[in-house]
Amino acid sequence: MTRRRKASVQQSGNWMITWSDLVTLLLCFFILLYSFSALDVDKFRKFIMSFQGQGMLDGGTVPVNEDPPPVPDDGPSNEASGSFYADSGRLMIHIQEYLKENGIEGHIEVYREEQGVMIEIKDHLFFDSARAEIRSDGRPLLNKLAALLDQMPNDVVVEGHTDNIPIKTLEYPTNWELSAARSARVVRYFTEISGLDPRRFAAMGYGEFRPAVSNATVEGRTHNRRVVLVIKRY
């Protein structure tokens, strides 16, 4: 009788083991739920990416949704901006067509250099000898050039050049002063009379020190007395 009673007592305590196992499983389950509720997205993505090469799809990778790459904003597309005026060849063609349409191509030379497109005008079209005041009969040409420059956003450098014949007057002691004064007058005409943005313009005077051709002949000296509009690359 004593042995049966002890065995009965031992068997009746077995349910405690099952109960403790069940409680432990429930505790693990709720801990797992809590961990998912506070999931770190970046850590989860890294965890998923660690399985690359071990997936079941073609190529052995696990697909992960990635944010699409940003689409570059090219801005407004029009002929007066960006690549059209960055291409100096196309810019030169545009200028030549404008000059021809306005009947002034015979007075102006257009060519390309590294810094941009050059518009070269002989000085006698704008100035009297040894003077920097713009002649009245040169203003229509300046007006047409201003209308051309107004069609583009490029910066413009106005260069003044002279021949190598010395000048010595009270107003212009050397060719430096004369060439600088002429380029400044052209810039002021474009900005003050024609209303172009002054932030686009610069005036440079080179005197006789950057001749286009030799000054040994009358023709060469005439050619070197010039104003050049440098249309910078945009």
Mean pLDDT: 82
For the sheet with most strands, the description reads: 5 strands, mixed
**Overall tally of domains:** 2
Residues in helices, as a percent range: 40-55%
Q: Strand tally, please? A: 5
* Uncertain residue ranges: 55-59, 71-81
> Topology as H/E string?
HHHHHEEHEHEHE
> CATH H-level name of the largest domain... which superfamily?
OmpA-like domain
The count of helical stretches stands at 8
Strand content: 5-15%
- Reading off the top of the CATH hierarchy, the class of the largest domain is best stated as Alpha Beta
Describe what this molecule looks like in 3D.
By secondary structure, the protein is α+β, with helices and mostly antiparallel strands. It has two domains: 2-49; 83-232, 60s Ribosomal Protein L30, Chain: A (2-Layer Sandwich), CATH 3.30.1330. It has eight helices and five strands; from the N terminus they run αααααββαβαβαβ. It has helices at residues 2-12, 14-37, 41-49, 83-86, 88-101, 139-149, 175-193, 218-224; strands spanning 108-113, 116-122, 156-161, 201-205, 226-232. The protein has a five-stranded mixed sheet.
